[in-house]
């Protein structure tokens, strides 16, 4: 040991020591410790409740890697099985039902389907209600039929009803009558062909009758045979039949139309 080390060691041993030194404890004690334990326990209980709720939701909603409940996410889109209820608007590109199963859209009031262009303007509308189907614009379909034992009615309350087809429009009633009623005029027009009526009996009711009398005796007899005449404007009328044509003699009825 060198002299400097000896002197330094001797000075450290001769230093006075404090007889009444106070010791301060380090840590959390008392009410602080109890509050800390309480908050740790509360946090643990909250975590356990949240975990239990998450497991319960996953179980009830039937969450899987493929989707949720009856909703399955596939490569082609979304597949929905069973009865579903949509509270907000649904925007889809295509809706298909399962194979060999119908697609049912049900509502307490009306079912409305709208078609819009890229500008958001309404281009087509279909409304199905208690009185039938209402189309907001033109309809293109290969087949229209009614339910069995029910009547099929096509109606336009405030506008025109037009049926067009490039190869013809065929209306047939295999086991019943075909009736066409209108309030004003019924037009049958063929621009390049003819109108062909083929039936055992063709009846034209409520046709006006022209007056013609060849002799006083014939005027007193009851007329049972009439001749069908046509005015230049196409109006039909009846003229009492005689030995020859009587249309020219009773043509004054054409002046009234």
Concise overview:
The chain contains 3 helices and 8 strands. It has about 260 residues and is an alpha+beta fold.
What does this structure look like?
With 257 residues, the chain is of the alpha+beta class. It has helices spanning 3-13, 31-60, 216-220, and strands spanning 67-68, 71-73, 78-80, 111-116, 122-129, 132-135, 226-230, 236-240. It is rod-shaped and about 170 Å long. It starts with a helix and ends in a 17-residue tail after the last strand.
Order of helix and strand elements from N to C terminus: HHEEEEEEHEE
Structural class: alpha+beta
Overall body shape: rod-shaped
Q: Can you list the strand order of the major beta sheet?
A: 1-2-3
Largest β sheet strand count, sense and barrel closure: 3 strands, antiparallel
Tell me the radius of gyration: 48 Å
Residue stretches low in confidence (pLDDT < 50, at least 5 long) are none
Q: How many beta strands in the DSSP annotation?
A: 8
Distance between the termini: 151 Å
Q: What percent of residues are in strands?
A: 5-15%
């Amino acid at each position: 040991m060198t002299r400097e080390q000896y002197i330094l060691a001797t000075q450290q041993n001769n230093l006075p020591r404090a007889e009444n030194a106070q010791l301060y404890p380090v840590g959390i004690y008392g009410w602080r410790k109890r509050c800390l334990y309480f908050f740790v326990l509360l946090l643990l209980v909250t975590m356990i409740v949240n975990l239990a709720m998450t497991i319960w939701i996953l179980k009830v909603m039937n969450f899987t890697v493929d989707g949720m409940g009856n909703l399955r996410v596939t490569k082609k889109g979304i597949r929905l099985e069973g009865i579903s209820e949509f509270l907000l608007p649904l925007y889809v590109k295509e809706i298909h039902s399962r194979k060999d199963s119908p697609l049912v859209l049900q509502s307490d009031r009306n079912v409305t389907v709208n078609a819009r262009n890229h500008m958001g303007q309404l281009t087509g509308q279909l409304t199905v209600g208690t009185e039938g189907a209402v189309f907001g614009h033109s309809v293109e379909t290969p087949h229209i039929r009614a339910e069995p034992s029910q009547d099929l009615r096509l109606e336009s309350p405030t506008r025109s009803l037009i049926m067009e087809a490039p190869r013809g429009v065929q209306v047939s009633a295999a086991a019943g009558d075909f009736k066409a009623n209108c309030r004003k005029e019924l037009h049958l027009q063929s621009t390049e062909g003819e109108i062909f009526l083929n039936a055992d009996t063709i009846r034209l009711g409520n046709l006006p009758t022209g007056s013609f009398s060849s002799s006083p005796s014939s005027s007193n007899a009851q007329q049972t045979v009439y001749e069908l005449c046509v005015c230049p404007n196409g109006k039909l009328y009846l003229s009492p039949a005689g030995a020859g044509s009587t249309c020219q003699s009773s043509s004054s009825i054409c002046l009234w139309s």
